[in-house]
Amino acid sequence: MENKKEMITIEDILKRKEYFAKKSEETKQLYIPSLGGNIEIAKPDRMLCLDAVEMEDPIESDKYFVYEIVKKPNLKSGKLHAEFGCEDNPLDIVDVLFETGEITDIVKIATKFAGFGIVEEIEDLKN
Predict the structure, then answer these.
(1) Is 51 among the domain residues?
(2) Domain containing 69: what range?
(3) What is the mean predicted confidence (pLDDT) over 38-47?
(4) How many structural domains compose the chain?
(5) Contact at 8 Å (CB) between 72 and 39?
(6) DSSP string spanning 2-22?
(7) Residue 40 within any structural domain of the chain
């Protein structure tokens, strides 16, 4: 169990040096009910998160985000776009393959995977 009252030290960080070097390569599998199987997402990086947040249309932002992080199956496949008529707007493959709620859930899980919404403030209990 993690001690949330203990300060991290440089030594603690150095023990995890390998983790920090490879954290951007992390992936996660998600079960998608409408597909009846799993997909693999990459951990979103800072630039992707910023790009998505800066888009004016939240629906297009979510589609863009999902399109960029799903690695398996490859949503950028030209064959997939051709089969589903998405050549003119490849992001439309996201709407074709996923239910609306699934898109939202993928975004929520991925942003948490990227570290959003998980930091806790520790209240000082000194008297």
Answers:
(1) yes
(2) 23-113
(3) 95
(4) 1
(5) yes
(6) --TTSPP-HHHHHHTHHHHHH
(7) yes
